[in-house]
Amino acid sequence: MHITVQREKLSNAVSHVMKAVSARTTLPILTGIKIKADEDGLTLTASDSDLSIEVYIPTEEAGEWGVTVHRPGSVVLTARIFSEIVRKLPNDEIELEVDNRLVTLIRSGQSEFTINGMNADEFPQLMQLEEEKVLSIPGDLLKAMIRQTVFAASTSEMRPILTGIMWSLEQGQLTFVSTDSHRLASRKAMVECSPELSFHNVVVPGKSCNELVKILDDSQDPVDIVVGENQIMVRAKHILFYSRLLEGTYPDTSRIIPQGSKTDMVVNAKEFLQSIERASLLSREGKSNVVRLVTMANNTVEISSNAPEIGKVIEIVHPQSLSGEELRISFNAKYMIDALRSMESAEIKVSFTGSMSPFVLKPTENDWILHLILPVRTY
Amino acid sequence: MHITVQREKLSNAVSHVMKAVSARTTLPILTGIKIKADEDGLTLTASDSDLSIEVYIPTEEAGEWGVTVHRPGSVVLTARIFSEIVRKLPNDEIELEVDNRLVTLIRSGQSEFTINGMNADEFPQLMQLEEEKVLSIPGDLLKAMIRQTVFAASTSEMRPILTGIMWSLEQGQLTFVSTDSHRLASRKAMVECSPELSFHNVVVPGKSCNELVKILDDSQDPVDIVVGENQIMVRAKHILFYSRLLEGTYPDTSRIIPQGSKTDMVVNAKEFLQSIERASLLSREGKSNVVRLVTMANNTVEISSNAPEIGKVIEIVHPQSLSGEELRISFNAKYMIDALRSMESAEIKVSFTGSMSPFVLKPTENDWILHLILPVRTY
User: Fold this and answer.
1) Which of A31, A114, A272 has the highest number of chain B CBs within 10 A, making it the mutation to test binding with B?
2) pTM (predicted TM-score)
3) Composition of chain A by helix, strand, coil, percent to 5
4) Is the ipTM of this complex over 0.90?
């Protein structure tokens, strides 16, 4: 292989695929990035047991030079070293030349590295997906859907299936659900796809979702999602992202979402969040991070918390509206803070069905987002 | 004590004194911030075994309100909790009211904290310094002097005296020296003081110096330095900063700085730094982080390094000038990178006296800064 490549494009491609390089692996070749040059351009690939990322640099695009392939070929270079070299090279052009012992010369300006490469044939092949179940969604919407649900996924390996986000599709509506069994987040959106396409129980690891958020840019350009038997592929411009799916059956969460409500409250999201954050300064000193919410006379709500030996805090909140039964309820402040921060809405409706039952948060302006939090039984 | 204080001023004051709060201490009172109100304003104090910081908020300054003292008094509040409360309170005004059991009410808007306080009489008194040895220096210059030397101080407790910066003053010239016995940094500046004032062997802990850099702002406003028997005080606007001095005699470093030179080289600081940084990508894979520098024919210098099993790197540097004997020398790349990054000069003169002797870096435009690095003996 012998190529000359534009440094910034190579640097961006390397930083994308780096997210799939595993620091600890039993397969030494997976500490590397596979670099493959053919007449169309340059392809970089990295892979760990959970996810694989492939980034493509075309020889030229929209009149802008990307890479010149003097001699096609391939090599695998240790990701950590290669990424740092690329980032620090002095010139806009980088030359890579691999000899028949896989020794790779990296040249830029007055700088010349000679790095031992590995055989690209030993790099695992990415599994090809049959493109039967394809749907299309704006990249920034996919990112928002992940961000608004991934925090509620479990981080404990006690029930591995709960460490993922459950994706489902029905009648053109894509739904993401996550829960750690103490709280639940759900986000829906309409997507472009064939009307008969549907799937359920597609559980994407939370870690993969987090990496996907980092790789996708914030544009509305559509990305394709292809769902396979045990993996999923997301295809953005010049990027292919593969993640394995979690095995097992995701619990049916629909039946735990209460249908009616006994007490309803509409709050300014920012003010309510700040009150909870202040109350949690003391509640988090304890183990369970519990704050209390009590409805008061004259349409106010009191948020309170205390920490033994330190002190206590009382916050008075004035909801936009408050109706229904009187209520005293306790909950984990962190769950409330996570939900409120993720919602990006000015007004939130909170619907309670008694102090022992889960309660629901929704934006007032739409039905796409729903958060459910289980109370803590202190009363 | 009962006061109403402007939130941002209180928040800034708290974040300054926080730097002297020790996380681990055998004296519980030192986990707190002492808050004292009298007719002039509010004083916040924190202290650990090494340093103490006092910040003052006047009742009013340049027509701008700071604090209203309804009833003078004092209290000590746990620093970690108090600082977070202050940062998160909703209103521009914060009311603090301490009752006779030291329970402190912190009120702002609809938010009300009740925090258990400690007795301010138990807080250790700051030692007063006799203001005999006072000098004055622009704050930004003091910060620069610290930044340009502190990195070369030792971080090992093997020789505690080397973990500090040695300050000395003679004929109006303030000198900072630091060394970890492998490299040395020196920075001089003229300051304002009485002409007969002089001191030597004033060794300020590196950690104190780092905190001082964070507290001083970047203005040219003068700060006063008062040197005492075993502590030093720096006085900026509304801030008093005390640090203990390290005990012992700082080694005489003047005799290890070579007077002549056998090979001289003037380089563009940025280009030279980047070459060393690239070479160190491989050298740091080894234990000693060694790069080689070799003078070549036609006025060039070769920087090189290698890492077993990974590869090697060669950098060609074109110095602005190169004169004297041929040279092959090896040194720790980190020491060179630290020195070059700190110097903030466009051109650097490097003076060698053979491959086994320390070499010296100076800016070409002035004599205020000197760095010395001991070579590694590989040739």
Assistant:
1) A114
2) 0.90
3) 25, 45, 35
4) no
